Amino acid sequence: MSAVSSTRRVLVSACFGALTLGLVACKKSSPVSGLGASATPSAASSSEAAPGPLRIAYSDWPGWVAWEIALKKGYFKDEGVDVSFVWLQYVPSIEAFSEGKVDAVCMTNGDALVAGSSDSASVGILINDYSNGNDMVVAKPGLDGVAALKGKKIGVEVGFVDHLLLMEALKSAKLSESDVTIVNTKTEQTPALLQSGGADAIAAWQPNSGRALDDVPGSKPIFTSANVPGLIYDLLFVNKKSLGARRSDWVKVVKVWFKVADFISDPAHQAEAAQIMGARVGLAPEKYAKLMAGTRLLGADENRKRYQKTADFGSVQGSSEIVDRFNVGNHVYKESLPVDPYFDGSLVEQAVSGK
User: Fold this and answer.
1) Taking a C-beta distance cutoff of 8 angstroms, is the pair 199, 191 a contact?
2) Tens digit of each residue's pLDDT (9 = 90 or more) over 74-105
3) How many whole angstroms separate alpha carbon 138 and alpha carbon 190?
4) CB within 8 A of 15, min separation 6: which ones?
5) In principle, which of 17, 189, 230, 293 could form an S-S bond with 313, CB 3.0–4.6 Å?
6) What is the pLDDT of residues 60-79, one digit of tens each?
7) pTM for this model (two decimals)
8) Continuous H helices in the chain
9) In terms of C-beta density within 10 A (0-12 exposed, 13-18 middle, 19 or more buried), how is residue 286 classed?
């Protein structure tokens, strides 16, 4: 899996916490930075146009690179909304949002909680996707299941999203963290750790998980985010002030996303989608298609479903409450946060109803 640095996710929560401590950037990092393309409506009202384009920071993760479809296809122009997408590495994109340089950012639900604990509260108005296999526990040859990890060394970046994935994996085999030896390792270094024999397994996101599979012949994924759908949600989070002032425009952005999700889900368009998205990150379409397969994009129906609160990974609120407990338990922040204010499904409902 090459230069694409996939990103994210939920419990990546520690990501922003690490940022505030001056540590290295995390999951959704990208080798490219700068300004993305913009889309300007042909006829916007003076009242709507006066504030300028909605500024949206996005980074290298399939659920967010998918916005390229809207830019290339002119969907924003069709909806009559002025946008400017800013392409950044993941952590810098969160920084830009917290500093008010952009109006919205593509971020995991876990990172939104971390940012909110540092007074950068936001509202998730749209769920782009959840990880569906791109986050993996990869084991060396000879280890054929999670139960085989008992007594073994596992490389993972402690406090980050795939630490949570690992905990879910161990739970599935009735194991706990005390049954294994955790080797705290930067995620980008986990493939080398597995290859050198410094660990028997690793937990990592793409492209690191894919690199481990390539570098260690016979290695295999023994647990992935596909085993816990909804563990890692990716959303569009908006500044509360911008949402209050330009709600109608943000509803249009939500409508655009539904067009994107429908386009990509159509088998007749998937090759073109992989070409457009792969070009954004410098990957051949056939390679990018593999990353797309590990990301479950969510359209209108799935958005409505996953904004309906449950106590488990089936809803973004339930997943976030689980992440919140993990964050507190791993000292990402001190006190539990109320998660409901971070999510507003009413724009999805408004976009679907056409009001």
Assistant:
1) no
2) 999 999 999 999 999 888 999 999 999 999 99
3) 10
4) 25, 26, 27, 28, 90, 91, 94, 111, 114, 160, 161
5) 230
6) 889 999 999 999 999 999 99
7) 0.82
8) 14-20, 46-49, 62-65, 67-73, 75-79, 90-98, 109-117, 161-172, 190-196, 208-215, 240-245, 247-265, 270-281, 285-293, 300-306, 316-329, 346-353
9) exposed
108: amino acid identity, one letter: T
Task: Identify the bridge partners of residue 181 per DSSP, sorted by sequence position.
Answer: 153
Tokens, residue 309: 């609160």
- Domains along the sequence of the chain with CATH: 10-131+230-353 (3.40.190.10), 135-227 (3.40.190.10)
**φ, ψ (nearest 5 deg) of residue 270:** -65, -35
Bridge partners, 39 (sequence order): 83
What the block records as the tokens of 269 is: 């368009």
Q: How many CB atoms lie within 10 A of CB 293?
A: 15
Asked whether the bond before 207 is cis by omega within 30 degrees of 0, the reply is yes
CB distance 311 to 21 below 8 Å: no
